[in-house]
Design a protein that fits this description.
579 residues; alpha+beta; six-stranded mixed β-sheet; two-stranded antiparallel ribbon; 13 helices; elongated
C-alpha cells in the first residue's frame, strides 16, 4: 500500500470539499429562490390579472349588446319597460370598466384598448341610442325605427370591433404570461438538475476520497489489529494515510505494546482467580451439603425427640396425678418442674419443626380469602379469647395468592401474641384490617396491649429472642420468627409500626392480584363511579376505607357469626366477640 501523498489532514480535506459544495449549493439555492419568486409572480398574473380581465371583457361585450338590444326593442314596441336592460347594461358597463382598470397597472396597451372601447361606446350612445330613445318617446315607434339605419348598425359594429381588439390584446398578454411561466419553470428545473448534479458529483468525489483516504487505511489497520488479536502480540502496527490515521496507528501500536507487557500479569492473575474460584466452588458445594444435612438433621431430630419427650411428659404427668399430695411439698415441686420442662420442650420442638417446614413442604399458591382464614383463626383462638375476655374484629380483608395453612398460621400467631401481651387493666381488643398500597396489600394487626419499645422493633422477629421472662409471658420466642418467614415466603415484608399511640401495630405486605390492582386503578381514574357490593374476598374501596382501626369496625350491637360471614352476606366488616 502506497502512502497517501500530501500533508493535508483528513478534517481539512473534508471541510474544503464540503465548503466548495456548500457555496455552490447556496448559490444555486439563491438562484432557485429568485426564480421561484418570479415564477409565482407570473402565475399570479395569469390567475389574478389576465384571467379575470378575459372574463370582464366578455362581460363588457355582453353589457354593450344588452344596451343595443334594448334600444332596438324600445324602438319597435315603444314600451318604457324595454329600456330596463339598457339602463342595466349601462351600469354593468361602468362597473366592469372600473374593475378592469384596477387590474391594468402592468398592461398599458390593454388600458389603451379599453379607452377606445369606452369612446366608441359613448359615440354610439350619443349618435344612435339616445336619439332613437328621444324620437320614440316624442314621435312614436315609426319615427324611432326610421333612425335604426345601416349607419347606426355600423356604429355599433365599431364598438363590437373595439371590444374584440380588447379581448385579443388581453389574450396576447395572457399568452405572454404563460410563456414567461413556462420559461421560468424550465429554468427552475434546470437549476434543480444542476444542484442534483453538484450533489452527485460531490458525493462521488467524497466517496472516492473516503475510499482512498479512509477505507483503505482503515482496512489495513483492521487487518493488522486482527493479527494482533489472534495472538501475534509482537506484530508491529504501521499505518499510512492522513496524519490522523498515522497517529491512530501509533496509539494502537502503543496499546498493543501495553497489552503485550500486561498479558503475563493477566495470565498469572487468571490462574490465581481460577484457583480461588475452584476453592469457592468447593466451599459452596460443601455449604449446600451442610445446609441440606442440617435441615435433614433438624427434621429427623425433631421427629426422633418427639417419642421420648412424649414418654417423659406422659410419665411425669402420670406421676403427678398419682402421687400428688402423697409426697412432700418439694417432691411435688420437682414433679411440676419436670412436667413443665417436658411440655415446653415439646412446644419448642413443634415450633422448630413448623419453622423448618415453611417453604420446604409446599402445596402451591391458590386464591385465599383472608376473611375465611380469619374465621378459622377465630375458631382456633376461641379458648384463649374466652379466658382473656378478648375481642377480635376484622374488616375488608382481600383475596390473595398464597398457601392457606401458612396464612392461617401467620394470622393465628399475630392474634395469639396480641391476646397474650395484654394489659392487666383492660380487656384485649385485636383488629385486623387491610388496604391496597400500589401493587401490595398492607395488612395490619392492631391491639391495645402493652406495646413494644422502638429499640426492640426489629429484635422481636429474631428466632428465640424474648423481651420478657417465660414466667411473665409463656412461649418459645419463635412465633414472630415464623410470622416473618411466612410473610417473606409469600413475597412480602413485616415490621412494627412504632408510631401508634396505644398498643402494638404489626404490619405486613402481601402481593395483590393483578385484577385487584387494575380495579383499584380504574376506581381512582373514575372517582364518580359508585362502588358495588363485593363477593366474599373481593374488597371494595368502601371496605378499604372502613378497614382502619378498631374503633371503625362494627359495633357490639351487630350480630356475630363464627364462620366469618355477616348476615348481609358480606365478609367484610365482621366481628367475633368473646367475653
Amino acid at each position: 500500500m502506497k502512502p497517501v501523498v500530501g500533508g493535508w489532514s483528513l478534517r481539512r480535506r473534508v471541510i474544503t470539499l464540503l465548503t466548495v459544495v456548500g457555496v455552490l449549493l447556496i448559490g444555486l439555492a439563491a438562484a432557485e429562490a429568485a426564480m421561484a419568486a418570479r415564477n409565482r409572480t407570473q402565475i399570479d398574473a395569469i390567475l389574478n390579472e389576465t384571467g379575470p380581465l378575459r372574463v370582464q371583457s366578455q362581460e363588457l361585450l355582453n353589457a354593450v349588446l344588452d344596451q343595443e338590444t334594448a334600444v332596438r326593442g324600445y324602438a319597435v314596441s315603444g314600451d318604457p319597460a324595454d329600456l330596463g336592460p339598457y339602463e342595466a347594461g349601462l351600469d354593468q358597463e361602468k362597473a366592469t370598466v372600473s374593475a378592469m382598470r384596477a387590474l391594468l397597472h402592468d398592461y398599458p396597451q390593454i388600458g389603451q384598448e379599453l379607452r377606445i372601447v369606452e369612446e366608441r361606446a359613448e359615440q354610439w350612445r350619443v349618435s344612435v341610442a339616445e336619439p332613437v330613445i328621444t324620437t320614440t318617446e316624442q314621435d312614436g315607434t315609426r319615427a324611432g325605427q326610421a333612425l335604426v339605419t345601416e349607419q347606426a348598425r355600423q356604429r355599433f359594429d365599431e364598438v363590437r370591433s373595439a371590444v374584440d381588439d380588447l379581448q385579443q390584446e388581453i389574450l396576447a398578454a395572457r399568452e405572454q404570461s404563460a410563456a414567461n411561466v413556462r420559461n421560468s419553470s424550465n429554468l427552475l428545473v434546470l437549476l434543480l438538475i444542476i444542484a442534483a448534479l453538484v450533489v452527485v458529483v460531490a458525493g462521488t468525489v467524497l466517496l472516492l476520497s473516503l475510499d482512498r483516504m479512509v477505507i483503505r487505511p482503515l482496512t489495513g489497520l483492521a487487518t493488522q489489529v486482527r493479527e494482533v488479536a489472534e495472538g501475534d502480540y509482537q506484530h508491529r502496527i504501521a499505518t499510512v494515510g492522513p496524519p490522523e490515521f498515522i497517529r491512530l496507528g501509533d496509539d494502537v501500536d502503543a496499546m498493543r505494546q501495553k497489552i503485550a507487557s500486561d498479558l503475563a500479569e493477566v495470565r498469572e492473575a487468571r490462574e490465581r482467580i481460577e484457583w480461588v474460584n475452584s476453592q469457592l466452588q468447593k466451599q459452596a458445594e460443601e455449604l449446600t451439603r451442610s445446609n441440606r444435612d442440617l435441615e435433614q438433621f433438624a427434621y429427623v431430630a425433631s421427629h426422633d425427640l418427639q417419642e421420648p419427650l412424649r414418654k417423659v411428659a406422659s410419665f411425669c404427668q402420670l406421676l403427678q396425678r398419682r402421687y400428688a399430695g402423697q409426697l412432700d411439698e418439694r417432691a411435688d415441686q420437682y414433679i411440676a418442674f419436670a412436667v413443665d420442662g417436658a411440655q415446653r420442650m415439646q412446644r419448642l420442638i413443634n415450633d422448630l419443626l413448623a419453622f423448618s417446614r415453611i417453604g420446604r413442604l409446599t402445596t402451591g399458591f391458590v386464591d385465599v380469602d383472608l376473611n375465611k382464614v380469619m374465621g378459622d383463626v377465630a375458631g382456633q383462638t376461641e379458648a384463649a379469647r374466652q379466658y382473656a375476655d378478648a375481642e377480635l374484629t376484622w374488616t375488608g380483608l382481600p383475596v390473595i395468592r398464597g398457601e392457606e395453612p401458612l396464612l392461617t398460621n401467620l394470622l393465628a400467631n399475630l392474634v395469639s401474641n396480641s391476646i397474650k401481651f395484654r394489659r392487666p387493666d383492660a380487656p384485649p381488643k385485636v383488629h385486623i384490617s387491610a388496604r391496597l398500597v400500589g401493587a401490595e396489600w398492607e395488612i395490619t394487626c392492631q391491639d391495645n396491649g402493652i406495646g413494644i419499645e422502638p429499640e426492640f422493633a426489629d429484635k422481636i422477629f429474631v428466632i428465640f429472642q424474648r423481651l420478657h421472662s417465660k414466667d411473665a409471658y409463656p412461649g418459645t420466642g419463635i412465633g414472630l420468627a415464623i410470622v416473618k418467614k411466612i410473610v417473606e415466603y409469600h413475597g412480602g415484608r413485616v415490621w412494627v409500626d412504632t408510631d401508634v399511640p396505644e398498643g402494638t401495630a404489626i404490619r405486613f405486605t402481601l402481593p395483590a392480584r393483578p385484577e385487584d390492582v387494575e380495579a383499584a386503578a380504574a376506581t381512582t381514574a373514575d372517582p364518580a363511579e359508585q362502588p358495588q357490593p363485593a363477593d366474599a374476598g373481593e374488597p371494595t374501596p368502601a371496605d378499604e376505607a372502613s378497614s382502619a382501626l378498631p374503633e371503625h369496625s362494627a359495633g357490639p350491637d351487630q350480630p356475630d357469626r363464627a364462620d366469618g360471614a355477616s348476615e348481609s352476606g358480606r365478609t367484610g366488616d365482621m366481628r367475633e366477640t368473646v367475653g
